[in-house]
Design goal:
This protein has one helix and 35 strands. It is mostly beta strands.
Length: about 375
């Protein structure tokens, strides 16, 4: 592999109260006032309950109380009011769930590992298990969101998709097996996607405290100008050395902005070594901030391509195949402070830290490097500045 140019097999994110009516009557003596409640105008309860269909007390007609819950998650979401909560009881729910633009400030919550929303055998567009489309203030929490998809390429595209201007908080979920069955080399299978450059749509998300593993292509993707994400405290684990597909743990692309902190991202390796898998890939993004992330065992742990005016502080990169932290020739105006990289595999052109840009910055690069720690670097002595 050249020490100057690296091809990264990145995913071009191409994927897709009561109502009161009054009746007035009059008599010669006075006026009588009568009221009736319009059933059609009754508001949904603040909390809608969903119970596994194997429980005999669930009803598709609701009303979604703890005693008479809905049978599917989508029924619960459809019945919920903006600002309400859909509480999903323990069990497995094989379905796709869409939270549309009329469901602002909705909370979808479960029981963690005991509550699974699973990909059904046949997925419909956009092949997401949960899609948040146009709604703002949505929270998805304490759920297991799981594949795999059916047999064949492109059977399952997303675990959670945030698009059409949606704003969501996705926290403390286990998102797993977002992949074809069997695991394939097709570039689908993204655990969380925010925005979509190829679809000219964007989204905003806080992604916090999730465990993400067994994804096919990407753990987290944020794509398109206008999209942004705060990504914190997540554990994101690739499948390790594989000849099937080059994975990326976190991918920020096509003008999207992001702040990444306190994430652990590891085990994204493509064993043929013809392209590089990455733990964190930043490909022509907007401004990004990386702080206190721990990456390990990626082909390239932290990869910058076309990154400008962004900051990298207190990140750790260990045991990379080719590069711990790498800035390509088009990455300029960035600052690298107090980062550490070590354990990169010995080989021609392999370095703990490398900056291939040229300019008026540190050691004639186009970036600023200060107080970083590494054993091998290009330019030499980069970590002694």
């Amino acid at each position: 592999m050249s020490n100057v140019r690296y091809r990264v097999n990145r995913l071009r994110l191409r994927f897709r109260d009561y109502g009161i009516a009054a009746v007035l009557g009059f008599s010669g003596v006075g006026m009588a006032l009568a009221f009736f409640i319009s059933p059609a105008a009754q508001a949904a309860p603040a909390t809608i309950y969903v119970s596994n269909a194997s429980n005999s007390h669930c009803l598709s007609t609701g009303p979604g109380t703890a005693i008479s819950p809905y049978c599917t998650v989508q029924e619960g979401v459809n019945a919920a009011s903006s600002g309400g909560t859909v509480e999903v009881e323990n069990g497995t729910y094989a379905e796709q769930v869409t939270i549309g633009s009329t469901k602002n400030n909705l909370t979808l919550t479960g029981g963690g590992s005991s509550t699974t929303i699973k990909a059904p055998s046949t997925m419909t567009t956009s092949k997401a298990i949960i899609e948040i489309s146009g709604a703002t203030g949505v929270t998805v929490q304490d759920l297991t969101i799981s594949g795999p998809g059916a047999s064949g390429c492109d059977s399952l595209e997303y675990g959670v998709k945030v698009d059409n201007g949606a704003k969501a908080t996705i926290d403390y979920n286990h998102i797993t097996k977002i992949e074809d069955s069997p695991f394939s080399g097709c570039p689908n299978g993204v655990a969380i996607l925010v925005g979509h450059a190829s679809e000219s749509t964007n989204g905003t998300a806080v992604i916090n405290g999730n465990t993400i593993d067994n994804y096919q292509k990407d753990g987290v993707g944020v794509s398109n100008t206008g999209s942004s994400a705060t990504i914190t405290n997540n554990s994101i684990t690739g499948v390790g050395p594989t000849a099937i597909i080059a994975q990326n743990g976190i991918e920020i692309t096509d003008g999207a902005k992001a702040s990444l902190s306190d994430n652990t991202v590891k085990n994204n390796q493509y064993s043929p070594q013809t392209v590089s898998a990455t733990d964190i890939l930043l490909y022509t993004p907007g401004t990004v901030t990386l702080k206190d992330n721990v990456t390990s065992k990626g082909d390239v742990d932290i990869y910058l391509q076309g990154v400008a005016k962004s900051s990298f502080t207190d990140n750790v990169a260990t045991d990379a195949t080719f590069k711990g932290i790498y800035a390509d020739p088009t990455s300029t105006g960035n600052s690298f402070t107090d980062n550490a990289a070590s354990g990169t595999k010995t080989g021609i052109g392999n370095y703990d830290m490398e900056d291939d840009s040229t300019g008026t910055g540190t050691l004639k690069t186009a970036n600023t490097w200060h107080n970083n720690g590494c054993k091998t670097s290009l330019p030499a002595m980069l970590c002694l500045q």
